[in-house]
Design brief:
The structure is a homodimer.
Chain A (H helix, E strand, L loop, with lengths): L4 E4 L1 H5 L9 H13 L4 E6 L12 H8 L6 E5 L3 H10 L3 E7 L2 H8 L3 H18 L2 E7 L12 H13 L4 E5 L7 H15 L3 E5 L7 H10 L4 E4 L19 H10 L8 H14 L9 H4 L5 H10 L1
Parallel strand pairs in A: 1-2, 1-8, 2-3, 3-4, 4-5, 5-6, 6-7, 7-8
Helix pairs in contact in A: 2-3, 2-11, 4-6, 7-8, 8-9
């Protein structure tokens, strides 16, 4: 029975896409309830300038609260060395920086070309290492870019190797644009793993075109052990209102458990956490099929058979 | 480059779940437009008593129209020998009967236990053979039942073999309840194929819990070459309003083409067919992610790379 780690990113990736600023107390209740349901890692916020993302302004306080929960790995996003210093000060367990594989996207998004990003990654790595904090690099737009279209797989591999040399300890492949398909996930995962091995542990998949869980299956086939997901699929898609962003944590848990994987998460408990988002974000579209359709009858029995097989 | 056949079932499975009766002219426009987009097989209706399903009352006329379209395989559902006679009279290319693997479901749904169903299958097979019509059996509730819970895989295999002996020419595994997971799809497909070989050609998957396309990936891995799907995911889920039923034809085409499979379907043309449903079924929830998010930039270029790989 393989263990799969689900990393909840709704409190960062989700909330930063929502116009409303979720009150600190609601964030705390959300994090606490997910941890109670068995979620072991949560990306609780982002150390970006509050001017840019007011939704993330209380990240240091959120980290302080999350760190009081036993057995929870508390991670945050950091856009640069300044953010990394703040994350280290706040006492996170892990930090990650997005590194856009599309240089056009990188320049447009953070005004840094690839060499500048690699210098930033080295600076963040030094801060993380000095503070004894785990440091991951998210290879974003790895499956395609809304500006460049297809992104060269060879370039992704080359940049991953360069980021490893700059001090990255772990990688995720990120389908920022919702472009990935299962065949591509398999091939790119294999190519990157061929160079950096199990440092590539994670897939960050979006469900923009409904292919999110299909891409998870492809990732499982290639030995991926961590998947980012967002409760209620929170995280609007920047291209189309009405299309969902992140893959839905609840649906992912259902699929993995039915397949016989161990996530450590109590699905019924997790489904109840949706109530916190419904109350704190009125009018915000919440996604997820399992919440409507319910857990299949005989699921536990089937999962047991699966594990025995 | 593998050819995958997409069988559109919205005109049957979709419309029979919708309260409104779609006018004959709209059905014709839908079928014509899908065929123009490259869809090669459509399940255009069901020969059930109009008292039970008024939405299907005009099936003979729909068949007559669909048969005028060149290179389109016209299939219908038949619940029993009486329906098979009507289908043969109407001049269909193929007919299929649902055979519920859960005996409880079969008795509740069509008042026939498994031996009675096998007698019915033999009768239908004789009619189809006499008329030179292709005859398929849909192994429904194969992945689980809302009444029985888990359904024995050994029972599914045994009943498939019995149905083959009764004259079935082809099989589909049908996830009637939206219970299937990719691991189960792989295993059950393998087990049934071990006994009946390529007579198992088709998966009929629902997206009730968001796992539909993930299950398609599992089916592709096991050599499945035909997938049923419904435009706009039409076909409400009987368990939860708001949850979708069938997998969405448009999203399936996107995924398969991105993976390098040949479906023969023009996706942009197919997306435009949604307009017919929007107009003919006002207020009906229509599903599908690709319609909102659009086709990825550089998709064709990527698909070409995929096919070359």
């Amino acid at each position: 029975m393989t263990d799969i780690l689900i990393s909840e990113v709704g409190t960062r990736d989700g909330l930063q896409s929502v116009d409303a600023v979720m009150p600190l107390e609601a964030k705390k209740a959300w994090i606490k309830a997910e941890a109670d349901a068995g979620v072991r890692e949560i990306e609780v916020g982002s150390f970006v300038p509050p001017k840019l993302l007011p939704q993330m302004a209380d990240t240091a306080e959120v980290v302080a609260f999350a760190k009081t929960i036993p057995n929870l790995t508390v991670v945050t996003l950091v856009p640069n060395a300044k953010g990394a210093e703040n994350a280290a000060k706040a006492g996170v367990d892990g930090m990650s920086i997005p590194f856009s594989m599309s240089e056009t996207h990188s320049v447009n998004n953070v005004r840094k070309d690839h060499p500048a990003m690699l210098r930033e990654i080295r600076a963040v790595a030094d801060i993380a290492k000095g503070a004894g904090i785990h440091f991951a690099v998210g290879l974003s737009t790895a499956f395609g870019c809304t500006m460049e279209g297809a992104v060269s797989e060879e370039q992704v591999v080359r940049l991953a190797v360069a980021a490893a040399e700059a001090g990255a300890q772990e990688f995720s492949l990120s389908d920022t644009t919702g472009y990935a398909d299962p065949q591509q996930v398999r091939r790119l995962t294999r190519k990157v793993k061929a160079e950096v091995g199990d440092m590539l542990s994670t897939l960050h998949l979006h469900n923009t075109r409904g292919l999110g869980l299909a891409n998870v299956v492809a990732g499982l086939d290639e030995g991926i052990t961590t998947f980012d997901a967002s409760l209620c699929g929170l995280g609007g898609c920047p291209f189309a209102p009405g299309a969902s962003g992140n893959i839905v944590t609840e649906d992912l848990v259902l699929m993995l458990q039915a397949m016989g994987y161990n996530t450590g998460i109590d699905l019924e408990k997790l489904l109840k956490v949706r109530k916190i988002l419904e109350n704190a974000l009125p009018g915000e579209p919440l996604y997820g099929f399992t919440a409507d359709a319910g857990v299949p009858l005989g699921m536990e029995q089937r999962a047991q058979l699966e594990r025995a097989a």
